Amino acid sequence: MLPKLIIHNSISLDCSISGFEANLELHYGILSSYRPDAMLVGSKTAKTGIELFCEEIPPEEESDFVKPEIQSGDPRAFWLLADSRGTLEGLLHIFRRSEYCKDVIVLVSEKTPETYLEYLKKRNYDFIRAGEAHVDYREALETANERYDFRLVVSDSGGTLNSILLEQGLAEELSLLVSPVLVGKAGLNLFGSLDKSGIGLELMKNERVEGNYLHLLYRVLK
Question: Which CATH architecture fits 38-55+76-150?
Answer without folding.
Answer: 3-Layer(aba) Sandwich (3.40)
